[in-house]
C-alpha cells in the first residue's frame, strides 16, 4: 500500500521568508497529489491539486511541485505570514477508484512575526 | 447553511452507550467519507460512499456502523466503543465519479470530538 512521509518535526520560520514542506511517497506513482491545510480542532481545507503530468502549480503565494522520479512533492509558501501557521497535509489517491485519499501525518508550520 | 456540517461537535459516551454522528453536505456532491483522526496520527479513512453505495470499508470494527440514506446525509452509528476510539471524527464530501478517480477535492466538516469513558 502507499506510504506517505511528511516531516513530523515542526517547521519554524520568520515572517516574510519562504516555507518549504516536503511530501515523499514510496510506492506506485499517483495520478495526482493534493495539499490541505488544517487548523487545530478543525477539518482540513483543500489548497491545491497537482497532476502527474504537471511539474508545478501556483495559487497566489502557494507553489507545489511534483517530481514522479523522486516520488516527491514540495509545497512552498512565499512571503509567509503568521496567519499561515497551521498543519499542512499531503494526500494521494488510494489504489482503488473510489475517491479514497491517503493522508500524510502533516507538517506543522509556525511563522513567527 | 453551506458546506459540510457535523453534529454533535462534542460527544462524551460510556462504553455501553449507543450514539450516532450526523453529517450533512449542502454542496450537491455524490461522494461522502468518514475519517478518524487520533492525536499524532495521520487521518485514517474509515468509509466511502459513492452515489449512496458503500465503496470502501477500511477494515473498520463492526462497532462503527455507517449509514447513507441519500447523497446529502451520512451517519456513523456507534455502539460498545472502547476508550481507544476517542478521536476527532471527520466527515467529508466530494463530487464523486462513477468511472474513475479524477482527484476531486474533498470538503471537510468541522468534526465531532468523541471521548469514550
List keywords for this structure.
heterodimer, A: 113 residues, mainly beta, six-stranded mixed β-sheet, five-stranded antiparallel β-sheet, B: 117 residues, seven-stranded mixed β-sheet, 0% helix
Give a structural overview.
The complex is a heterodimer of chains A (113) and B (117). Chain A is mainly β and 113 residues long. Chain A has strands spanning 4-6, 11-14, 19-25, 32-38, 45-51, 56-59, 62-67, 72-77, 86-93, 101-103, 107-112. In chain A, the strands form two sheets. In chain A, strands 2, 4, 5, 9, 10 and 11 form a six-stranded mixed β-sheet that branches. In chain A, a hairpin with a 7-residue loop joins strand 9 (86-93) and strand 10 (101-103). Chain A is globular, with a radius of gyration of 14 Å. Chain A starts with a strand and ends with a strand. The model of chain A has no long low-confidence stretch (mean pLDDT 92). Chain B is built from no helices and eleven strands. In chain B, the strands form two sheets. In chain B, strands 2, 4, 5, 6, 9, 10 and 11 form a seven-stranded mixed β-sheet that branches. In chain B, strands 1-3-8-7 form a four-stranded antiparallel β-sheet, with no helix packed on it. The termini of chain B are far apart. Chain B is globular, with a radius of gyration of 14 Å. Chain B has strands at residues 4-7, 10-13, 18-25, 31-37, 44-50, 53-57, 64-70, 73-79, 87-94, 107-108, 112-116.
Amino acid at each position: 500500500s502507499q506510504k506517505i512521509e511528511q516531516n513530523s518535526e515542526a517547521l519554524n520560520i520568520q515572517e516574510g521568508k519562504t516555507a518549504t514542506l516536503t511530501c515523499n511517497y514510496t510506492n506506485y506513482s499517483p495520478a495526482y497529489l493534493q495539499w490541505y491545510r488544517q487548523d487545530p480542532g478543525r477539518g482540513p481545507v483543500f489548497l491545491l491539486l497537482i497532476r502527474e503530468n504537471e511539474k508545478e502549480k501556483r495559487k497566489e503565494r502557494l507553489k507545489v511541485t511534483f517530481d514522479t522520479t523522486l516520488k516527491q512533492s514540495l509545497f512552498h509558501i512565499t512571503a509567509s505570514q503568521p496567519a499561515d501557521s497551521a498543519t499542512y497535509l499531503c494526500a494521494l489517491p488510494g489504489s482503488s477508484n473510489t475517491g479514497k485519499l491517503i493522508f500524510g501525518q502533516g507538517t506543522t508550520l509556525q511563522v513567527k512575526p | 447553511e453551506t458546506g459540510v456540517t457535523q453534529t454533535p461537535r462534542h460527544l462524551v459516551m460510556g462504553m455501553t452507550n449507543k450514539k450516532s454522528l450526523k453529517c450533512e453536505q449542502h454542496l450537491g456532491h455524490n461522494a461522502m467519507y468518514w475519517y478518524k483522526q487520533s492525536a499524532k496520527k495521520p487521518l485514517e479513512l474509515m468509509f466511502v460512499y459513492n452515489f449512496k453505495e458503500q465503496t470502501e470499508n477500511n477494515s473498520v470494527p463492526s462497532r462503527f456502523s455507517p449509514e447513507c440514506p441519500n447523497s446529502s446525509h451520512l451517519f456513523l452509528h456507534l455502539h460498545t466503543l472502547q476508550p481507544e476510539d476517542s478521536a476527532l471524527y471527520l466527515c467529508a464530501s466530494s463530487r464523486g465519479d462513477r468511472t474513475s478517480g479524477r482527484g476531486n477535492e474533498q470538503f471537510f466538516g468541522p468534526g465531532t470530538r468523541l471521548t469514550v469513558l
